[in-house]
Amino acid sequence: MDETKYEPVIGMEIHAELRTASKMFCGCPVVDTTIAEPNTAICPVCTALPGAMPVVNKRAVEQSIMVGLALNCEINASTIFARKNYFYPDLPKGYQISQYDFPIATNGWIEVEPEGGEGVRKRIGITRAHMEEDTAKSDHHPAAWPETDAYTLIDFNRSGVPLLEIVSEPDMHSVTEAHAYATSIREILRYLGVNSGDMEKGVLRFEANVSVRLRGTETLGTRTEIKNLNSFRALVRASQYEIERQTAVLESGGRVVQETLGWDEARGATFSQRSKEQAHDYRYFPEPDLPPLAIDRAWVDEMAARQPELPAAKYARFTTELGLTENDARILVAERALADYFEAAVSVYDGDPSAVSKWVVGELAYLMNREGVGIENVKVTPEALAALVVLVTKGTVNQNGAKNVLDAMFETGRAPESIVKEKGLVQISDSDQLAAVVAQVLAEHPDEVQSYLAGKDSLLQWFMGQVMKATRGRAKPPTVLSLLREQLAESANGE
User: Fold this and answer.
1) Contact partners, residue 266, CB within 8 Å, separation at least 6
2) Could you tell me if 452 and 463 are in contact, meaning their C-beta atoms sit under 8 angstroms apart?
3) 264 has which bridge partners?
């Protein structure tokens, strides 16, 4: 793509299943469709049997309001459900109960920091967030052998699951901005506890609306919509491919066709699914079985008071009040549970919070990745980690020894003090004791001493390693370094 000539314009629709116990308009339980037996969590309402009547899930409305508030939206006093008419095998009624003209939340925004943006934040507008029901799930099966036909099975367990669709303004002008926006929305949903963020299970899905235009112009180009992107990788790759494809079409004198596209991950290419529908194609009209829903302002204020501290605010506090580096703060706030763990450790640690953050995002994160466990299942309590950091900062145990201690804590959940004592890792800081070890090391390596005195300064670290080996890693490094320089200087002077 000629970045000097063309500018991409990206808007996004994010479909997030809400974490409620029951479905949007019936009492059927919400189940994990990746493991539940197909068509076991269904009833006449979510399978659209004649005479079935929908009833709005109050908890789904509450969670939608929470998201709207987090996205700086206006929560509308009255919201109306509508029938969105289209025919597809996974839509049992032949229409979807959704919202259009009167959604629950409108006119919001969030600020994101694209990767490589050097701290520059970008505001992305939120057009609306509206409630609807999810469709059923299609299970496509290819032909088993040439004489048979391909077929598709339908699982209605997902039909009617509460869904919140978040629609952005076309404010993104690069795939990095789109990635940052999608990441921020996922973080907010997880902080609020309204969505697990498990994209591999289909509970969070992206749809990117992509167009390109001549740089410097305000008129939007013809857009295409890439449906059902279920990973950040797919979002980035599909958007970049579509930007390049549309640019090539325009450069060759062609015309971009407005259409709905799918993404083929294996081929790394988009493919046409159908012509792009407009609002009038869906023939929206108010759902006759559901009256307008009045939203009491006191209810909204109550939920606003219960909102947790969101990632952006937490990041600002971690960097300004706690003095963390931007990188450490960014890693910590990405997961609410990890940020909570860090804060619990800091609350019992009487020192610089950065000392704790280094261990959380460093060694503890390494062990978590190695073993494939989340912070919720770590045996090391925040209090125990803080105690380990105290042992390091007081000089009781050195850095390498502390890593061994943390490894044992991770495996057993034991307190660091008992492990240090058991393994004999208490750091030796007595100068007289260490002076004797240094003298012995120098006496055992006269050739290396002469090389150092002849100007090979790098041997100083080698001597340090020999002393650490002799003390099984327990020698206090600053003391050893000072003693080495002192005794080597004496050797140079012939003392």
Assistant:
1) none
2) yes
3) 269
Instruction: Please say whether the beta carbons of 293 and 79 come within 8 A.
Output: yes
Complete DSSP assignment for 120-176: --EEEEEEEEEEEE---EEEEE--SSTTS--EEEEETTSTT-EEEEEEE-S-B-SHH
Q: Which among 365, 309, 327, 323 is positioned nearest to 113, based on CA atoms? A: 327
* 170 contacts 209 by C-beta, under 8 angstroms: yes
Residue 359, CA distances (Å) to 37, 319, 331, 380, 452 in order: 43, 17, 12, 12, 36
Q: Which residue bears the tokens 């997961």?
A: 335
**What CATH fold (topology level) applies to the domain 431-492?**
Arc Repressor Mutant, subunit A (1.10.10)
Residue 270 has pLDDT above 90, yes or no: yes
Condensed to tens digits (0 to 9), the pLDDT of residues 437-494 reads 888 888 888 888 888 888 888 888 898 888 878 877 777 778 888 888 888 888 877 6
Residue span(s) of the chain under CATH 1.10.10.410 come to 431-492
Q: The tokens of 322 are what?
A: 């706690």
- Name the pTM for this structure: 0.85
DSSP track, 472-487: TT-B-HHHHHHHHHHH
Q: Is the predicted pLDDT of residue 119 greater than 80, yes or no?
A: no
Distance CA(248)–CA(241), nearest Å, equals 11
* CB of 214 closer than 8 Å to CB of 272: no
Distance CA 311, CA 333 (A): 6
